[in-house]
């Protein structure tokens, strides 16, 4: 069964609004680190020259947010209260949400801003698929082509409140996008609010999670590699970070031949 990577990398060389730092401990440094630790903790002297090339193990030290790279947002990310009770953190979410049949909707012609329920209904009709409860939906907005650049965070398509409610009413509980956010870009949201005074334009996709418990996968990639719009399974298990509002994931599509 072919596996298709649907994840964008964590890369310290990418442009990010929250800087990613990645420090690599070399194998030579790893040997010194191990020897110093053995001496400090156990009082044991160890001569690293007996190791192959005087080397031990490398290590990587990173500083980043839980929303860097492809990640899953938990209900706790959307606020401290939900109409259904206390929103769960990422380590509390049911695993069976994250290994499910999936389908992809093509929104690449939508431009910067939001699309509504009618646009999603058309996209579903175009692929001739009947979504089932707990399916995972993937939104191909074309944003993945700009990963690593500043425009990735400013030029993409999000969902308005009607679009999210449409998907949630279908019983979907995991909504994925290749964009930075399931909502419109921050600048677009603020400008629209300033022009209209309508509070419903303020991050409706995220705040919908205060009414219905659901998760988002943000910053997907590789959706264009899917050979068909449905008939495959997606695995996107989030990293189990205790008490966190999100967890990184290596999202993968399992495509039967």
TrEMBL record:
It holds the Pfam family Cyclase. GO terms for biological process: L-tryptophan catabolic process to kynurenine. It comes from the Bacteria. SUPFAM superfamilies: Putative cyclase. Coiled coil: none annotated. GO terms for molecular function: arylformamidase activity. InterPro entries: KFase/CYL, KFase_sf. This is Cyclase. It comes from Streptomyces gardneri.
């Amino acid at each position: 069964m072919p596996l298709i990577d649907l994840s964008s990398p964590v890369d310290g060389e990418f442009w990010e609004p929250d800087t990613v730092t990645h420090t690599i401990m070399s194998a030579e440094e790893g040997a010194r680190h191990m020897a110093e630790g053995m001496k400090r903790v156990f009082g044991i002297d160890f001569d690293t020259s007996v190791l192959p090339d005087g080397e031990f193990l490398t290590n990587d030290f990173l500083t980043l947010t839980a929303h860097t790279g492809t990640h899953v947002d938990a209900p706790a990310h959307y606020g401290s209260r939900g109409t259904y009770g206390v929103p769960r953190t990422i380590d509390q979410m049911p695993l069976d949400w994250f290994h499910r049949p999936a389908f992809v909707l093509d929104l690449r012609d939508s431009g910067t801003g939001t699309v509504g329920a009618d646009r999603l209904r058309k996209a579903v009709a175009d692929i001739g698929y009947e979504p089932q409860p707990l399916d995972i939906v993937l939104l191909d907005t074309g944003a993945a082509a700009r990963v690593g650049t500043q425009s990735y965070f400013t030029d993409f398509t999000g969902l308005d409140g009607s679009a999210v409610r449409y998907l949630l009413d279908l019983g979907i509980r995991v909504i994925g996008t290749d964009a930075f956010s399931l909502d419109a870009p921050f600048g677009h949201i603020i400008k629209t609010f300033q022009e209209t005074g309508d509070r419903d334009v303020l991050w409706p996709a995220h705040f919908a999670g205060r009414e219905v418990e659901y998760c988002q996968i943000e910053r997907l990639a590789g959706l264009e590699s899917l050979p068909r719009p449905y008939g495959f399974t997606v695995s996107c298990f989030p990293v189990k970070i205790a008490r966190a509002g999100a967890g990184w994931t290596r999202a993968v599509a399992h495509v039967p031949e």
